[in-house]
Automatic annotation (TrEMBL):
It comes from the Eukaryota. Residues 1-27 are annotated as: Disordered. Pfam families: PDZ (PF00595). This is PDZ domain-containing protein. One of its GO terms (biological process) is receptor clustering. Residues 34-116 form the PDZ domain. It comes from Phyllostomus discolor (pale spear-nosed bat).
Length: 133
């Protein structure tokens, strides 16, 4: 995910400095989900994004088709990674999380806890019209 918070704006004075980026992902609008994955020959089947700036969350990027995460079905792009094998990763660097994942790969499995935004009650996802309908 490319978080370009330094893009031009009609109100440049309101753009926060990059190092102040924070994501408040606690509270009733979020749920946590525990996911156990076994490593396949191609890996765990997802990409990790974020952690490049202080306070930036670690996010699930692409879920690789037919990989372990895809077959499991519970990880979604944009999920915030909270724990890797019981170790908290909030506020940690991208490199730190990658090192934890390499350790998990050597063990052949990983336990992840992710946090996901929950739609408010009564809100329905918008229907997507097909071309020609």
């Amino acid at each position: 995910m490319n978080l370009n918070i330094n893009s031009p704006s009609s109100h440049p004075e309101q753009v926060p400095p990059r190092t102040s980026f924070r994501m408040d992902s606690s509270g009733p609008d979020y749920k946590e989900l525990d996911v156990h994955l076994r490593r396949m020959e191609s890996g765990f089947g997802f990409r990790i994004l974020g952690g490049d700036e202080p306070g930036q969350p670690i996010l699930i990027g692409a879920v690789i088709a037919m990989g372990s995460a895809d077959r499991d079905g519970r990880l979604h792009p944009g999920d915030e990674l909270v724990y890797v094998d019981g170790i908290p990763v909030a506020g940690k660097t991208h490199r730190y999380v990658i090192d934890l994942m390499h350790h998990a790969a050597r063990n052949g499995q990983v336990n992840l806890t992710v946090r996901r935004k929950v739609l408010c009650a009564g809100m329905e996802p918008r229907a997507v019209a097909r071309v020609g309908d």
